[in-house]
Amino acid sequence: KEGGGWSEPQPLPPSINDLALHWTVSAAENYNLYFSANQDGNTDLFLSRYVIGEYTDPILLDALINTSNLEITPNIAPDESYLLFTRIASRSAPPHLYISYSLDSGWSEPVQVENISYCISPIVTPNRSFVIYLSSPSSFEWRDTSFIEALRP
User: Fold this and answer.
1) Is the pLDDT score of 118 beyond 90?
2) Where does the chain have alpha helices with state H?
3) Do the beta carbons of residue 51 and residue 45 sit within 8 Å?
4) Rounded mean pLDDT of 29-50?
5) Helices (H) and strands (E) in the chain, counts
6) Could you give the CA distance from residue 95 to residue 56 in angstroms, rounded to a whole number?
């Protein structure tokens, strides 16, 4: 955003755009990008840091985050203190909401958020009070974000 309007759209670098499947891209307040992409036959979560006005080549997030399951639709906290994402055990399994926290040693072991039986594309509202998500292929639901602090290690 520039002044009272938007600048011309700019493409992300080929190192990001050449990866398949960017269903959800989430930006931290420092402009770091978190996204899911398919590489080598598995869909995982990636980070591209914003350094001196440019995006770095994407890197896979920690092995605790990226497993042999499908990890998709990340939502990063503005301060990068936690990461919400969807994990799917197999193409026929329901998608579940997970949360991981940034620690000095890297990301914490992801925890499945209970009481949400189906979750794709979690998005936290700007006031950080609610998470809105696809609760089926054709409907949305929301819940309060009290679980974020309740599950923090």
Assistant:
1) yes
2) 14-17, 146-150
3) no
4) 94
5) 2, 14
6) 30
